[in-house]
Specification:
By secondary structure, the protein is α/β, with parallel strands linked by helices. Helix content is 36%, strand content 27%. It contains 11 helices and 15 strands. It starts with a strand and ends with a helix.
């Protein structure tokens, strides 16, 4: 599991030391005022564990280290070269940035370098790699699943109708996925507990004037609590109902078992009761999926005011001044 994150000079301003609090369980939250980098930290962790070097080159920082409970450290050092900077420009275009990603072992008395990737700033230079096998094995064992701010899940659009339909398209994919699971005896047997948790969470969330049905003929659908038991189009669900379904289904059926889950502002479009129940919901999912969570949020209701499960970036940054 991820034990600690340290970041030096995020945005060339902030130093952070984030203890994941494994003694308090596998769930940790990041809070802060706007502009301190909650979302950016999730992006950096995701980029580190998925080898998205373009993101590491794009985001301003000096160093980030991820420390794990097996005494391994994945570190990225980012250096911007200023010798050719045009001081007449307010914003530098295509700055020259060099990136070095290293894997260390802290098991022995002396720190051992297990692998190194050098990404040069000159486009005609080749990336240099030492210990590729060690790094590949590490990344296979340290996976992550990133659920972004729901506003970023949609394609860029100026119309609310198009955004509404985009969420419905995601849900239709989930309907077909569940139908496939239910109609395959092997998959069904392997997913019984996940299906039970899915239905339990949705039923407890008490969607307005409707209830969930699950069947191998149609996957899942919603029925209105009216005299005709009207079938409800997924497109007619509220934005909050859609976002809850997307989060729950994504975690239960699409994320890899035992992965590190990164979630950005899950409270968007959730009313107060759903926010209060959120911690219980992700604990139930973690129980069947073996997840570790790192969640960025503005809402203390999401973690039931259990501040021992949080790191506040504003307070944390003061400790480095």
């Amino acid at each position: 599991m991820l034990r600690k994150i340290t970041i030096k000079k995020l945005y060339n301003l902030y130093d952070y030391d984030i203890d994941m609090g494994l003694n308090n369980g596998p769930i940790h939250f990041i809070t802060s005022p706007n502009g301190y980098g909650k979302t950016t930290i999730l992006e950096l962790v995701n980029a580190m564990l998925t080898s998205h070097h373009d993101d590491l080159l794009r985001i301003p920082f000096e160093r980030i280290s991820l420390y794990f409970d097996d005494d391994l450290e994945l570190r990225a050092d980012r250096k911007q070269h200023f010798e050719d900077v045009d001081i007449s420009l307010d914003v530098q275009e295509n700055p020259k940035v060099e990136l070095v990603v290293r894997l260390f072992s802290h098991k022995a008395e002396n720190v051992e370098t297990l692998g190194e990737i050098c990404v040069p700033y000159e486009p005609d230079q080749l990336m240099k790699v030492d210990g590729r096998g060690n790094i590949d094995m590490f990344l296979v064992s340290k996976t992550c699943h990133y659920l972004t701010d729901s506003r970023l899940l949609r394609k860029k659009t100026d119309t609310a109708v198009a955004e509404h339909e985009m969420d419905s398209m995601s849900l239709n994919v989930y309907v077909e996925r569940l139908k496939q699971i239910l109609n395959d005896p092997t998959q069904h047997a392997a997913n019984v507990s996940r299906i039970e948790v899915f239905k339990k969470i949705v039923d407890r969330s008490d969607f307005s004037s409707k209830y969930l049905e699950i069947n191998k003929l149609f996957g899942f659908r919603f029925i209105a609590k009216d005299e005709l038991s009207t079938k409800i189009s997924l497109n007619s669900l509220s934005s909050g109902e859609k976002h809850l379904l997307i989060q729950v289904f994504e975690l239960l059926f699409n994320a890899q078992q035992g992965t590190l889950v990164l979630i950005d502002e899950p409270e968007l479009s959730f009313h107060m009761m759903w926010q209060v129940n959120y911690l219980k919901m992700i604990q139930e999912i973690a129980h069947v999926r073996g997840f570790q969570y790192l969640i960025a949020t503005h809402s203390p209701h999401i973690f039931n005011n259990m501040w021992s499960l949080t790191t506040d970036l504003y307070t944390n940054s003061l400790g480095h001044e």
